[in-house]
Amino acid sequence: MDKKIMDKKSTDKKPALNAAPRRKIDVKEYFRGIKTETKKVVWPTRKELGSYTGVVILTCFAFSFGIWIVDSLFLGALKYILNISF
Q: How far apart are CA 19 and CA 33, in angstroms?
């Protein structure tokens, strides 16, 4: 290669893609923002929280029961296919 071309390639500095300018982190401002955003949250009442908790627990039981049924059917099918008994 020509020396001029090699020198040009080695000295070319391309800017980094998606390079954001660096800003100084202000810890007080960060926590002030957290406090402001927390005030915007609509917190559930005690009754709503109990209701939501019940729904989550029932859903967990329903899914675990469904998975147990599918697992038992799969185990039965494998026992039948492979002629295995415990």
A: 25
